Amino acid sequence: MDFSWPLIVAGLLVGFSVGLTGMGGGALMTPIMVMIFGVNPTAAVGSDLAASVAMKPVGAAVHHHAKTVRWDIVRWLLPTAVPAGFAGAFILPLFGSGEALQERLKLAIGAALLLAVAGMLARVLLNRRSVLPGEEVPVRPVPTLVIGLVGGMIVGMTSVGSGSLIIVMLMLTHPRLSANHLVGTDLVQAIPMVAAAAVGHLVVGDTRFGLVATVLIGAIPGILAGAILSSRAPSGFLRWALAVLLLGSGLALWHVPSTTILLSCGSLAAVAIAAAGIRRTIPPPIGIKQPAAETVRRSD
Hints:
Layout (H helix, E strand, L loop, with lengths): L4 H17 L4 H11 L4 H25 L5 H21 L6 H29 L14 H18 L5 H10 L5 H25 L5 H21 L6 H18 L4 H24 L19
Helix pairs in contact: 1-2, 1-9, 2-3, 2-5, 2-10, 3-8, 3-9, 4-6, 4-8, 5-7, 5-10, 6-7, 6-8, 10-11
């Protein structure tokens, strides 16, 4: 039976992290389903995508209202992201069938999680490079189409990356785009992309609706609560905590020894603590005011 209070609580926590920081949707929910609740990996991917279809519009609506969506970039992402997301479910059988498929999918999810961690670290480094007031950042059509293709394929196969991976690729190709516009643009394009991926998994029979409903019972109030608190609570700590958790989950899915996982997570935690200390001790440049806390930080 898919209904369980622990799964509802997991959905609540994941939804809260998404609402507060814009991260942790598929990157957290899918491995939680697989490693803690013993859900078949293909069913976990399909069910998580279906749940994300209901979660993504919450943050996207806020960004649309705040006018932090670059619709020109969205228009160049969707032509490749939507079909690639849909095709992801049909590409999975190429990895094998039965137990072999499930094991290879675990490795694919683990790889996506590790890419997500790398993306989160890159996001921290690139976040400083923002557009100046009144400056318009032009869209780069060809790289944006490629981002849609690669990102959509990864999301369709693993349910991971609709926020963490794609937003970093957008940073690399549009490095002077402001953080709010990056997040808002990513969230809006993720709605049709994730919906297409969810439909693909529904067609091949990977979706468990009882599992989806149970996750959403916790996730919807969680993401709303996170959204309300996003303008008040410091999210830097939670972002680093998520990075450590994703690193541990990704390595565990790759069957890395526990000692190595602990050392890796401990090292990343030490980097987070050091980065926080450095940030507090470095004063802002002369004539530059400290930026106000971002009021919107949502993407998967």
